[in-house]
Amino acid sequence: MRALRKLNTTVATTDRSDGSLGDLQDFFIEKDGIAGYTSRGDFRLTVFSQNTIRVSISRASYDDFSYAVIASPAKNKFTIDDTPGALIIKTTSIKLVVQKFPVRFSFYTVEDVLLNEDDAAFGTSWNGEQVTTYKKLQPNERFLGLGEKTGSLDRRGKGYQNWNTDYFGYGVDADPIYATIPFYIGVHSNTAYGIFFDNPYKSFFNFGASNNRFASFYADAGEMNYYFIHDDAVGNIIQHYTALTGRMELPPKWSLGFQQCRYSYYPDTEVITAANTFRDKDIPADAIVLDIHYMDEYKIFTWSEKDFSNPSALLKKLNTLGFKVVLICDPGIKIEKGYHTYESGKKENVFLKYPDNTNYEGQVWPGWCHFPDFTKPETRAWWKKQLKSYVNLGIDGFWNDMNEIATWGQMIPENIELDFDGNKTTMRKGRNVYGFQMARATYEGSKALSKKRPFNLTRSGYSGIQRYGALWTGDNVATDEHLLLGVRLVNSLGLSGVPFAGYDVGGFVGDADQKLFARWISIGALSPFFRGHSMINTRDSEPWAYGEDVEHIARNYIKLRYQLLPYLYSVFFEASKTGMPVQRSLAIDYTHDPKIYEQRFENQYLFGPSILVAPVDSKQEFAKVYLPEGAWYELHTGKKHEGKNEVIVEAPVHKLPIFIKESGIIPVQKATQNTTEKIDIIEYHVYAGSKEKTFVHYTDDGESFDHEKGNFASREIKFSPKQNQVVLAEQVGDYMDTIKKIKIVFHHFSPLQKLTINGEKHKVKEEQHSFFTPITKFDPVIDPPPHFYDTVQTITITNKPAAIQVKW
């Protein structure tokens, strides 16, 4: 049925054979926009916010169901101007011009700068069921994002496919892989826009591949449904996109620590040995991750009686050592009479079915399996009941794997039916959201069963996956190329609304050598999700497995991460509120600087707002780094560099190039063995600069949801160079932490004279500072040699929730 009735109107007509959207015949003003129909299809334009307009185009009725979008249109003021040749919709941020004959869409800023326009000849077109929108390429236009896609930061000249795929040992240019996030950002003419194409069918994006005329996005079936977003900065566009698709809930603090995995640690004595070794060797860690061998013949919700005969005792022992446990969860349910999960799933009718109402069977680790239909509410409720045994035992984290769905043969039939929350469809439409809904079921189920925040990791997902957990980049390979690819993948995921992401440090497939592992763990320590993982029949890949020198390097960088936890946790809190990523491609803050898109610099990123990481491969002894606008300080030495410059720095395997942005404010603590250790002093490191900066230091109990009821502590730190002061605002929130003293560390300031705290004179000390904790055995190659120390000035004051003004 058509969405609109046809009115008696006389309009110009065209009759094209290209299947594109035809001439406007009539339109209606609706509450949140306009709706119209043409000679070839209908369209509806919905103003979701001043910065976001939804474009829906269909030849049948509209499909408003979406797993990705959780927002509704706000009450927005906008104007509509009906001219002879066009309709013009205008918000405070976007001007949308709808050409009438034929219907084409062009987006402008309110200052009339062209952002994005349909190709004049094609616009939105159909080729059978396939629906495509063609957008004219703008001069020097760049394309960013699209989630978990290999390749370069700038996607111009490339094409991509979205079809979630289990891809073991994928190549550095492989596509598609595990997750679908059909959202990209276009950049040109000193402005930017975003497009989110919310259609879960197999879809394709072409950013000028094999043509120099248009970019296009299309799907095998379904309607053309996209959201156009514009703001004055890329970071703001990401925030608007995540306002549509949701933001992550604050994860448990322990999940930001180091996690150690192996395919697989078994029997249970090997798990305890690994945990004890971390503590014996003074290497911080928070979690041990158990792969499929903890189960009885790979059957989910079971334990191997042979290798894990007493899981309760194992978890208690690990808990005394300060370790959480994360369990792998695969969707395949073995078809086995008497197996409780199989029997209850069959009884409650939760499995995927063929059109003839028989349960689908596919082979995976346990053998022939049925698979839950996670798009069915009753199935998600059933999954929660299955999780109860794990949660009651004390499991704190879950790892959703093989959820593309992966099956032997990799050809899951597309005629399998899915409930789709009552909007019944087939795997043809549902494959890209299957893993997303499994992650949802695991997160919502474990959250409901426990008063603690669950940690939830997934391999597969769709736009909105950030609401339910972290995403890692799957079965990577132990090579330098994959080391750097992992960085780009996480950068791209951050640009695409997924702040909690990472890769298997050291590489899952194959054997890393000493230098590769050392370099990888130094970079991984400055990534959002930090996990070491390697597969069966490869060499051991724990931090101590590569010899004493690499062990020292690993210890230093893991401790660096733990020192930075107050900074990192605060950045995660920001991500939960705004959608801003933790690992930030330089394209967010330096969008129109062409240097950051060069292949030699495209891997660089900001870790939070103030720490610049320049990843280099394991073979490099020196690195060429591009520093964007502003002044920058080497973390290791304190050496100052002016921005908009290329610099060559030493980069031996123990020294990853890391820089601090001028005026940066970084909360730091001592290096603990795990995140539950109490600390009594916090350091606020302030770097000299000419720009005013603020940073909000956030903390809470790290594990419950009480922060949502006000049980948190938040404090804004503001550095004002023109006023020669640092102000710690009054603490907000009811949480009582264990901090007794505050140490403010001034980097690269002239000697501070007449310093006062709330008007009273205070003495300044000069110290030698290193971000690397020295160890007993001094090795000039591995431990902090003299040039790793930075001369600083410090003050120490009693922590008070009241405002504190430090002035000089």
Kindly list the characteristics that best describe this protein.
globular, alpha+beta, single chain, 808 residues, eight-stranded antiparallel beta sheet, eight-stranded parallel β-barrel, disordered N terminus
Write the topology of this structure.
Blueprint: E1 24-30, E2 33-38, E3 42-49, E4 52-58, E5 79-82, E6 86-90, E7 94-99, E8 104-109, E9 114-117, E10 124-127, E11 130-136, E12 142-145, E13 159-162, E14 183-188, E15 191-197, E16 203-206, E17 214-219, E18 224-230, H1 234-245, E19 259-262, H2 268-280, E20 287-290, H3 311-320, E21 324-329, E22 333-334, H4 340-347, E23 362-364, E24 367-370, H5 377-393, E25 397-400, E26 417-418, E27 425-426, H6 427-449, E28 455-458, E29 470-472, H7 480-495, E30 501-505, H8 514-524, E31 529-532, H9 548-563, H10 565-578, E32 583-585, H11 586-589, E33 605-607, E34 611-613, E35 622-627, E36 631-634, E37 640-642, E38 645-650, E39 658-661, E40 665-668, E41 681-687, E42 693-700, E43 712-720, E44 725-728, E45 741-747, E46 756-757, E47 760-761, E48 765-769, E49 790-798, E50 804-807
Parallel strand pairs: 19-20, 19-31, 20-21, 21-25, 25-28, 28-29, 29-30, 30-31, 41-45
Antiparallel strand pairs: 1-2, 2-3, 3-4, 4-18, 5-6, 6-7, 7-8, 8-9, 10-11, 11-17, 12-14, 13-16, 14-15, 15-18, 16-17, 22-24, 23-24, 26-27, 32-33, 33-34, 34-39, 35-38, 36-37, 36-39, 40-41, 42-43, 43-44, 44-50, 45-49, 46-47, 46-50, 48-49
Helix pairs in contact: 5-6, 8-9
Figure out the total of helices. 11
Radius of gyration (Å): 27 Å
Helix/strand/pairing class, anyone?
alpha+beta
- Low-pLDDT parts are 1-17, 775-781
| Span of the ends, CA to CA | 73 Å
Beta-sheet strand percentage? 25-35%
Question: How many beta strands in the DSSP annotation?
Answer: 50
Shape: globular
Tell me the strand order in the biggest sheet. Answer: 1-2-3-4-18-15-14-12
* Arithmetic mean of pLDDT: 95
Oligomeric status: single chain
